[in-house]
Amino acid sequence: MPTLAAGERQIDQVIAYGVGRRGILYLTDRRLIFEWSEGLVSKRYLQLGLALSDIQAVNATHAAFRGSALVITAKDANNGFRANQITLELAMAPELWVTKINNLLVRAMPPVAQSSPVAQTTVIVEKEVVRTPCRYCGCLVDAFRSDKCPNCGAPLR
After folding, report:
1. Domain 10-108, what fold?
2. I need a labelling partner for 102 at 20 to 30 A (CA). Which of 31, 37, 131, 140 fits?
3. What is the edge-to-edge ordering of all strands in the sheet holding 21-28?
4. How far apart are CA 53 and CA 136, in angstroms?
5. CA 66 – CA 63 distance, rounded (Å)
6. pLDDT tens digits, 46-56
7. Residue 16, beta-bridge partner list
8. DSSP type of residue 53
9. Are strands 21-28 and 44-51 parallel, antiparallel or unpaired?
10. Cα–Cα dist 141/11, whole Å
11. How far apart are CA 140 and CA 129, in angstroms?
């Protein structure tokens, strides 16, 4: 399993044949990853990735002797696969993968601009609250917000 970025989640995986190798194709909410292993004694895992934002089109093909395949057209050949068109033969119906990828692409599209753009600024302020224990009952008290213990009513110094 490839290492995922923070907040990235895996959607699906399937055994696939591509770039002259047998491996596993992973679909996450951000990218497609094709991973395979090399070596018998000391295995190492290699992977090629393609960000979903770099995908231009996804299709399923059915050849008479080769079976069905997933054909991905990238916007640019400057991706992990170093090709504009990537063909991967899948162990399951590629139409399901086309649907899943297209659904993710639609979700990733930027929203349509509003007719009257309003600038919104969100400011997140983090504050550290220091709590000290009350010397009479031991309850943790925010000494900056109150001058007496909310549990026993003792004055704080």
Report:
1. PH-domain like (2.30.29)
2. 37
3. 44-51, 31-38, 21-28, 10-18, 85-90, 67-74, 55-63
4. 60
5. 5
6. 888 888 888 88
7. 23, 90
8. G
9. unpaired
10. 45
11. 11
